[in-house]
Design a protein that fits this description.
Layout lengths: L9 H25 L5 H15 L3 E4 L2 E3 L4 H8 L1 H18 L8 H26 L6 H28 L6 H33 L14 H10 L1
Antiparallel strand pairs: 1-2
Length: about 230
């Protein structure tokens, strides 16, 4: 889903750069509330995992590429604000060191994958969590559902940007069909990987998964704390 240089016109690229800068600024403040001392190293591991997963690219058409995004996975494990920062760092390194995604399109890629994919995925995750039984076992299931939905949603967001400022010689309807087709298939892979990864983490250390923390309250501990107070 990396957008190359010149795929969108200058005004659209500048607008997405502004949105990306604002989003990252908000994420810098929000991440302070998400990361505990124990979970902070997990953010680094998540960034490395996403970086490795996104290096496996395959062409979709007209210079764009498809790959695993990892946005929902990151949001569930370390929180959406921290996930935004993790994805931004990954995209910055890929653009500057590996020419994966254009430098002038960095704001567009951050907007799509670090903002739209992360927050759409996390919103669907919270909705799925509300509909599923309130149990730690529901976390990987909700994460998989959210991961699947987030990928085509992000692809549609890209198509929306192309409709506004697309510069490539490709028809919009053709692009929408192609992007949705490929990214629905990618979403299935994303869902499977997210389910297995989140499931492994919550099985071993559920306290490290941001999306499972609210399920770990201990009533007995709360009663004893109230009694001492």
């Amino acid at each position: 889903m990396h957008v190359p240089d010149g795929f969108l016109d200058a005004p659209t690229s500048l607008a997405t750069a502004g949105v990306a800068a604002l989003g990252v600024g908000v994420a810098l403040r929000g991440a302070r509330r998400e990361l505990s001392d124990a979970a902070a190293p997990l953010a680094g591991l998540v960034a490395v995992f996403v970086f490795a997963g996104q290096l496996l690219n395959f062409p979709v058409g007209a210079g764009t590429s498809g790959h695993l995004v990892g946005a929902t996975l990151a949001a569930v494990l370390v929180g959406p604000f921290t996930a935004t920062l993790c994805l931004t760092v990954v995209l910055l390194v890929q653009a500057l060191a590996f020419a994966d995604g254009g430098v002038s399109a960095l704001g567009t890629n951050v907007t799509l994958m670090a903002l739209v994919a992360v927050w759409a995925g996390y919103a669907v995750f919270r909705l799925a969590r509300a509909l599923l039984p309130r149990a730690v076992a529901s976390v990987p299931v909700a994460a998989a559902i959210a991961a699947f939905v987030s990928v085509p949603v992000t692809a549609l967001a890209f198509c929306g940007l192309y409709a506004v400022g697309g510069q490539a010689p490709i028809d919009l309807s053709t692009l929408v069909v192609t992007m949705l087709g490929w990214h629905t298939a990618i979403g299935l892979g994303e869902a499977a990987i997210t389910f297995l990864t989140v499931g492994s983490v919550v099985a071993a250390r559920p306290d490290l998964a941001y999306g499972a923390r609210d399920l770990l309250t201990t009533p007995e501990l709360e009663i004893r704390t109230a009694a001492w107070t």
